[in-house]
Amino acid sequence: MKKAIFLNANSDKLFEQVYDYLLERIRRGEWKAHERLPSVRSLASEFGVHRLTVFKAYQLLKQNAKVYVKDKSGYYVQPGSTWPPVAVQQDPIISAYVHDSHLSEIHQVEAVYQFSKALLDPNLLPNRYFSEYVKRVFDLYPKVLGTYSTTQGDRELREALRGYFTGRYHFELTEDEVLISSGSQEAIDLIARVLVKPRDYVILERPTYSPAIDIFTRQGANLIPTEITPDGYCLEQVEELMRKYKPRLFYMNPTFQNPTGYTVPAEQRKRLVDLAAEYRCLLVEDDSYPDIYFGAAPPAPFFAYDTSGHVIYIRSFSKYIAPGLSIAMVACRPGIMKYLLKAKSLTDSGTPLLNQKIFLHYFFSERMQQHLHKLRTALSIRKGIMEEELQSTGWQWNSPDGGFNLWIKLPGSASAGMDELLASCREQSITFVPGSICDPLREMNSWMRMSYSYLNEQQLREGMRRFIGLYQEMFE
Ligand SMILES: Cc1ncc(COP(=O)(O)O)c(C=O)c1O
């Protein structure tokens, strides 16, 4: 009998290793949809493991809808289990390590009418004043360029943020429970790497922030979607998912969610924090847009309700304060923080100190508060323009109370032609985000995300007219 190739005393159970290995090969397309997989007996002999081990791996693949059983004749590949051909790299050495980033692929498309970018129009930032803060930082810290930050982040900034969140939301926080990361994307990635092992269950909103799907998929997680609506979540369903799957975490973006703009109401926040504690499921709260509201301010973050350490709070400051600085904060309890620090120290030696110091002086300035006020007004006007242009179309959307995006449902006829619509738009220098890449199930084909934050008012109007005209030519 051959020696088992999977033996790894520190790793998962043997059948789980066989599962991972088979799943990876299915995903790479080594066996096609509906193709019969090798028999339990032959694989057991090939791997040098007991037949029961292979059988259990197949059972798990079946349970996770990666294979199906036909007429007791064996296991067959379930359609949809393989990665699309573009995801499989030509070079076999690279292919083992590269994973897709669907949104960044869309962002790489150069276009005049960028409705795909949930970014702030740089003209809306007080650019003229930035240089003042940069100069002030060099005067105050002449050696700033000659020094690394600590991995956890600049102590002065962490202390200032602790004070800010305690004052604003009554967070109970010490500066050691604050980590500065290079944007919230890095924070999601660190959290996934530290907390999620292959086959762990992870709840995601449906739809959700597209890169989160890619990150948790890369981690090998089993994704469980739960709908987000203008009224928040269905808590009965979330509780049922927690009971049934014992998920490791629930990644959520509950305030002016990207892509929908929906906000989870305060009553649900308290209840969900209690559920998280009951089922020992961590809540990863990604808070990227809390200050961009057009009416009343949104409810306090989940973190404010958490007394048992089940919420990890990520607050990005890049989206509307200073995208070029890429600063975000993670707040969590020491038990998790110590692992995040280890992971961060393998990524870099801390977020650039210069960026942290500039951010510190800029964010806590009076000008910043005035800037936020103007920003809300400017973005609300842009949202209004986009909605005005959409009025005549009959498409559906819920007007969001904040954030950067409209989540729009096109009539059924467009869903089959989404790829063609995207391609024609590119030819006309227009981009948008197709709903399917925001859906953990990769469906939602008749939805799309359009951002009103990046283009100026004139471009917004012109771009929308061109987009709607193109759509009507293709589908009406
Ligand atoms: C919900 C959400 N999370 C994270 C990010 C990434 O933000 P950052 O620039 O801080 O990495 C974005 C950016 O669009 C976002 O919308």
Brief account:
By secondary structure, the protein is of the alpha/beta class.
Q: How would you describe this protein?
A:
With 476 residues, the chain is α/β, with parallel strands linked by helices. It is built from 17 helices and 14 strands. The chain has helices at residues 14-27, 40-47, 51-63, 92-95, 102-107, 127-140, 155-169, 184-195, 210-218, 235-245, 266-279, 334-347, 353-363, 366-390, 412-415, 418-427, 457-475; strands spanning 67-69, 75-77, 113-114, 178-181, 201-206, 222-227, 249-252, 282-287, 311-316, 328-331, 405-409, 430-431, 433-434, 447-451. The strands form 4 sheets. Strands 4-10-9-8-7-5-6 form a 7-stranded mixed β-sheet, sandwiched between helices. Strands 11-14-13 form a 3-stranded antiparallel β-sheet, with no helix packed on it. Helix 9 links the parallel strand 5 and strand 6. The model is unreliable at 86-98 (pLDDT under 50). Bound molecules: pyridoxal-5'-phosphate. The site of pyridoxal-5'-phosphate has 13 residues, from helix 8. Pyridoxal-5'-phosphate is lined by residues 118, 183-185, 209, 253, 258, 286, 288, 316, 318-319, 328. Residues 12-80 form the HTH gntR-type domain. This is GntR family transcriptional regulator. In the C-terminal section; belongs to the class-I pyridoxal-phosphate-dependent aminotransferase family.
Provide the gyration radius in Å: 24 Å
CATH topology group of the largest domain: Aspartate Aminotransferase, domain 2
Number of strands: 14
| Strand ordering within the main sheet | 4-10-9-8-7-5-6
Poorly predicted parts: 86-98
| Shape verdict | globular
CATH homologous superfamily caption of the largest domain: Type I PLP-dependent aspartate aminotransferase-like (Major domain)
CATH architecture of the largest domain: 3-Layer(aba) Sandwich
